[in-house]
């Protein structure tokens, strides 16, 4: 990985990095915060939402003070492959900036849109090789990235100690964003879609015995709450499966990074407790 730039923040180092990805066949970018000290440190992976890059969380979330206090590395990758020859769409909710953290099987997306493999295989290996990690990690995210965090943790529970989300797309098989993206990336077979739906995965028992709690924060003033996010489907699935899930509905908060900045310390602490258990 090539270091593009470095900043000191809260006593630790924040690096912007790029590398050629074997998973996506494109250059990929990310940011990595490492607390002060020799380590080793556990890792917390952040997945961002639609239209975002690695920079949105890095500059807006205000997470690094808590990460420094708890001694946690935070990794924030880009949300999709990008560049010349990479498929795209004029809409904000498909194509570059909208990878949905799945491995696409359909043309023209399949050659490069392999974000599940990128995060769960390549990225984890790169971070463990390049930084002083304990080789333990957790995952969280926002919106499309909240969907990604939940589904990747549920599909690969051996990789993660804990999972949380801000305003996640709770059941992409039952909302316009998910239906559009899954049709494009995965085709028309809804059985394939269900494998990447957090609510359906929880309902099927994918979290059983894996996570002592799943933390979800949702703003009550979020304009996408009713049509796209549907956290009530997560709650119903967890109740059906006997899975503990803490949904905190936050009055007055919307879908922006102002919402995340207000509660990110809680999420870092939630994961730090489990990463160091």
Secondary structure topology:
Elements: E1 2-9, E2 12-20, E3 27-34, E4 41-47, H1 54-60, H2 64-70, E5 73-77, H3 115-130, E6 133-142, H4 144-155, E7 163-166, H5 176-186, H6 190-194, H7 198-203, E8 214-219, H8 225-229, H9 231-241, E9 245-250, H10 257-275
Parallel strand pairs: 4-5, 4-6, 6-7, 7-8, 8-9
Antiparallel strand pairs: 1-2, 2-3, 3-5
Summarize the structure in words.
The protein is of the alpha/beta class. 36% of the residues lie in helices and 23% in strands. The protein has ten helices and nine strands. It has a nine-stranded mixed sheet with strand order 1-2-3-5-4-6-7-8-9, with helices on both faces. Helix 2 packs parallel to helix 10. The radius of gyration is 17 Å and the shape is globular. The relative contact order is 0.14.
Number of helices: 10
**Basic shape:** globular
Number of strand elements: 9
What is the gyration radius calculated from CA atoms? 17 Å
| Average pLDDT number | 97
Distinctive features:
single chain, 277 residues, alpha/beta, 9-stranded mixed sheet, 10 helices, globular
What is the gist of this entry?
Helices cover 36% and strands 23% of the residues.
């Amino acid at each position: 990985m090539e270091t593009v730039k470095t900043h000191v923040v809260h006593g630790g180092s924040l690096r912007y990095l790029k590398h050629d990805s074997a998973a996506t066949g494109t250059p990929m970018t990310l940011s990595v915060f490492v607390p002060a000290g020799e380590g080793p440190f556990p890792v917390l992976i952040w997945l961002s939402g639609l239209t975002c890059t690695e920079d949105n969380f890095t500059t807006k979330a205000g997470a690094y003070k808590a990460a420094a206090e708890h001694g946690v590395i935070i990794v924030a990758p880009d949300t999709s492959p990008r560049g010349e020859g990479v498929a795209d769409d004029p809409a904000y909710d498909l194509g570059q900036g909208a990878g949905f953290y799945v491995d696409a099987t359909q043309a023209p997306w399949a050659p490069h849109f392999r974000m599940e493999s990128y995060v769960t295989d390549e990225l984890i290996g790169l971070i463990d090789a390049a930084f002083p990690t304990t080789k333990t990690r957790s995952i969280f995210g926002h919106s499309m990235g909240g969907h990604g965090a939940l589904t990747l943790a549920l599909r690969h529970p051996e990789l993660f100690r804990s999972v949380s989300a801000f305003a996640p797309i709770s059941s992409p098989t039952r909302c316009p964003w998910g239906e559009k993206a899954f049709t494009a990336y995965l085709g028309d077979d809804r059985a394939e879609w269900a494998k990447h739906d957090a609510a359906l995965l929880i309902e099927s028992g994918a979290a059983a015995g894996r996570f002592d709690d799943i933390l979800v924060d949702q703003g009550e003033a979020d304009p996408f709450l009713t049509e796209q996010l549907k956290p009530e489907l997560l709650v119903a699935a967890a109740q059906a499966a006997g899975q503990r899930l803490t949904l905190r509905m936050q009055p007055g908060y919307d879908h922006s990074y102002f919402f995340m900045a207000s509660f990110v310390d809680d999420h870092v602490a939630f994961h730090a407790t489990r990463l160091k258990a």
